[in-house]
Specification:
The structure holds 2 protein chains of 2 kinds. By secondary structure, chain A is mainly alpha-helical. Chain A contains 14 helices and 6 strands. The chains are: A mainly alpha, B alpha/beta.
Chain lengths: 321, 495
């Protein structure tokens, strides 16, 4: 007999399992290796955003700017690869390798994330407002940088990041798996992880305990920005093109994955593991609805209902505790 | 006439009221006295319908009444003027006065004109010179207090309970309030007046009622009693304690503070020119009535008010600067705060998590086995009653939570330990264990600053006591002078 608390802890895992059983019964295409790898590859971007934002939400914050930072970082990555960086005044032109452009994009994402954290701690701006502003700013910057046009044909080397397979596994899946490992270590094995939970659980007690709240928040928002930038590189590579509106509304899927994974929006409760299950659940659901030829309009309705259901079940469990 | 018979109110671990019998005369001002924790606030909360679940009965005009909520108490004609103001700073004076009993016109819409008119009259009566549309948050503290009084005035209640109504008022405002009280009295209302200002009580009230440790101790007419007699009733037993042998070396200074001021830019600084010394191995008590500034003093020492405070502080003879709690921890200071829920523990995490917090630095790796070992050691040493170190702190009893907080600070190996009401709301046995622990820690050479509003424990434990009043140190008591009546006498504000 499985204990009640174990059942509650793994409810999202059970939901995922049931969903997969149902889909493999109603669709003969779902349970094929090709399709399953496809699902994993598709969710790798949302996974990057979601595990980054999980840290933010664990501190009782939120990061609405991840989709826009993804768009801007992807555009900058593509722009640097294709056009390099010109300094007309110095008569200087700098070209970028794939690695160079990728690192530059991550640097941009990290800086914007850090700026979020700085504004939030320095001026006590609510995270919702600070990152909402960043959403608009970064989206505007990405339209300015690309002049509203896609930047395409970025070379086959760059394309490999999103398309290649390594040891039988798609490269984006490798990347997200490595990042997951890093974030699991951060949350479970470092003082930073413990401070994140402490701040989200009781910020006043964290302050009295001498925890450097500002620095922790800077780090957390910077990490979220960095993860958004990595997502941007992945998206750009998969399409071999940077779209100025790439990543539009991705923050919502990311929040959904986190919430379905059992992380509390009021902070202090949740885990990277939960977020992974949440992201997979949303990915499988999207995939299943496509396989079943459900219209895109209905897909949105269903996704919304699933999120609502997840949160209601979670709340009911909390009450019964 | 308002009376309570055999009123008992229990909270987990504490009997706040123990078979209290009181009867407040109509048309008279009834002074209600008692030291901190005597049960005055609990009594008021029951009478105003905030707390239910008591035993015994409340009678109003010889009718037994019960209140399901605060509205029921108001409907019965009881108004309360709180010590902690119960106003909404984001709403206007008028909106506050009419909250929940707004006037409407025949369309069912708010009748602003009528409310404004009544509001202006009420404000004139209590002496607030502000328009009804002024936001309460923009008023001075004394004006807010007067708005609270206007609210009671507006309620047309037959019983008015006042909890330290004058603590924020100027002399002139007090005179006006007393005139108002005389008028209420003439109208036959029952007035219950709580204050620590003796001179004021003798001026305004006819009867007194003393509570101590949740029991009704004495009652009578003011004209038949004296200040000394009232203090003796409030303190009760004159606890005889053996003079303590000085177990610490006087020359080993742990902390020296000079010119500590908090909120210098305010008209009335919250702490003013505090100076004191404390030695290694000494338990230095901090006593004072509610709002005397004990908590603020400890918080300031711990770097929690760095932007508003100034002080010269020397720790173990070296001048140092404390700008945030992390600085204080760096100087081996630890601070057990007053409110376990608010700033003591992360309640939805376990013992090991909470105990490790102040000892960690950003960039450290967690060592799960070391954390567990440490938590297990303190769980046994402090006899924390929990299923395991993985139990969530929110599920522990108050006394055990307090021990976890002590554990997390002892793990930092402090040389100076600040304790703010370490035994509030916990049961006798846990209290006793914490007392033993304090003695043991002090004997090992740690300097303890011990703020408490419970006279018996401070007399029993402290080597020396600083008595605070209105943000200043009013007296230092040691040896044979350190007794209950002196503590209370020094703690009462001088008019």
């Amino acid at each position: 007999m499985i204990s009640n608390s174990l059942l509650k802890k793994s409810q999202s895992l059970i939901a995922l399992f049931l969903l997969m059983v149902v889909l493999s019964v109603v669709s003969d295409k779902f349970l094929t290796t090709g399709n399953l790898w496809n699902v994993l590859r598709q969710i790798s971007v949302n996974l990057c955003l979601s595990i980054g934002m999980t840290l933010v939400i664990l501190t009782a914050g939120i990061d609405l700017s991840v989709g826009a930072i993804l768009g801007l970082s992807g555009a900058i990555c593509a722009g640097l690869l294709k056009f390099g960086l010109a300094f007309p005044a110095l008569d200087l032109w700098v070209g970028f390798t794939v690695l160079g452009a990728t690192l530059a994009a991550i640097l941009v994402g990290t800086s914007l994330g850090f700026f979020n954290g700085w504004v939030i701690t320095r001026f006590s701006v609510p995270p919702f407002v600070a990152t909402l502003s960043m959403l608009t700013i970064a989206r505007g910057l990405s339209f300015l940088y690309t002049q509203g046009q896609p930047i395409s044909d970025l070379g086959t080397d760059f394309e490999q990041i999103g398309a290649a397979w390594l040891l039988g596994v798609p490269v984006p899946v490798w990347i997200s798996a490595c990042l997951i490992l890093v974030f699991v270590v951060i949350t479970n094995r470092t003082s930073l992880g413990r401070f994140i939970y402490a701040i989200g659980g009781n910020e006043k007690a964290a302050l009295v305990s001498g925890i450097p709240i500002k620095q922790v928040k800077w780090l957390v928002y910077a990490l979220s920005g960095a993860m958004a930038a990595i997502g941007g590189v992945l998206v750009t590579s998969r399409l071999n093109s940077a779209q100025p509106n790439a990543g539009m509304n991705y923050e919502l899927d990311s929040i959904a994955a986190i919430v379905i994974g059992g992380t509390s929006l009021s902070g202090g409760q949740g885990s990277i593991k939960g977020t992974i299950i949440g992201a997979i659940l949303i990915g499988v659901l999207n995939n299943g609805l496509v396989l079943l030829n459900v219209s895109p309009f209905w897909q949105q309705v269903v996704k919304g209902l699933v999120i609502l259901l997840a949160v209601i079940v979670d709340k009911m469990n909390q009450k019964s505790n | 006439m308002l009376a309570v018979h055999n009123l008992t109110m229990e909270f987990p671990g504490v009997k706040a009221l123990d078979a209290v019998n009181l009867s407040f005369q109509a048309g008279k001002v009834n002074a209600l006295l008692g030291e901190n924790g005597a049960g005055k606030s609990t009594l008021l909360k029951i009478l105003s319908g905030v707390n239910q679940g008591y035993q015994g009965e409340i009678r109003l005009l010889d009718q037994v009444i019960t209140f399901a909520d605060t509205k029921a108490s108001q409907a019965a004609g009881i108004a309360i003027i709180h010590q902690e103001l119960n106003l909404f700073p984001n709403l206007s004076i008028c909106e506050n006065l009419f909250l929940g009993k707004e006037l409407t016109n025949s369309w069912g819409l708010l009748d602003r004109a009528a409310m404004d008119r009544i509001c202006v009259e009420l404000l004139a009566e209590v002496g607030v010179n502000a328009s009804p549309a002024t936001l309460v948050g923009e008023l001075k503290l004394s004006e807010q207090q007067l708005v609270e009084i206007a609210k009671a005035l507006h309620s047309q209640a037959s019983v008015i309970l006042m909890d330290e109504p004058t603590s924020a008022l100027s002399d002139q405002e007090i005179d006006r309030l007393h005139a108002l009280i005389r008028r209420w009295q003439a109208e036959g209302k029952t007035i219950v007046y709580i204050s620590h200002k003796m001179e004021e009580l003798f001026r305004i009230s006819e009867y007194f009622h003393v509570l101590r440790d949740g029991k009704s101790i004495a009652a009578g007419e003011m004209k038949d009693t004296s200040e000394e007699a009232l203090i003796a009733f409030m303190v009760g037993r004159n606890v005889i304690i053996e003079p303590k042998a000085e177990s610490f070396a006087r020359e080993a200074l742990a902390i020296e503070v000079k010119a500590l001021t908090l909120g210098a830019s305010d008209a009335k600084p919250r702490l003013h020119n505090i100076q004191f010394k404390a030695h290694q191995g000494e338990i230095l008590g901090l006593y004072g009535l509610m709002g005397a500034g004990r908590t603020e003093l400890l918080e300031t020492l711990f770097g929690m008010h760095a932007s508003e405070a100034s002080m010269d502080i020397q720790i173990h003879g070296k001048p140092c600067s404390i700008q945030c709690p992390a600085d204080a921890i760096g100087h081996q200071i630890a601070f057990v705060t007053e409110d376990r829920k608010k700033d003591g523990l992360v309640m939805d995490q376990d013992l090991a998590f909470n105990i490790s917090l102040p000892s960690l630095h950003l960039g450290d790796w967690l060592q799960a086995d070391k954390d567990a070992e440490l938590a297990e050691k303190y769980r046994q040493d402090l006899r924390i009653k929990s299923a395991s170190i993985e139990q969530l702190c929110g599920k522990l009893s108050g006394g055990n939570q307090q021990k976890v907080i002590l554990a997390k600070w002892l793990a930092t190996k402090p040389t100076i330990l600040l304790l703010d009401e370490p035994t509030r709301g916990i049961d006798i046995q846990a209290k006793d264990e914490i007392y033993q622990l304090m003695k043991q820690i002090a004997a090992e050479g740690t300097c303890i600053l011990f703020a408490s509003s419970e006279i018996p424990e401070i007399v029993a434990l402290a080597d020396r006591v600083l008595v605070m009043c209105q943000g200043q140190i009013q007296a230092e008591l040691t040896g044979s002078h350190l007794n209950a009546s002196n503590l209370l006498k020094e703690a009462l504000p001088i008019l």
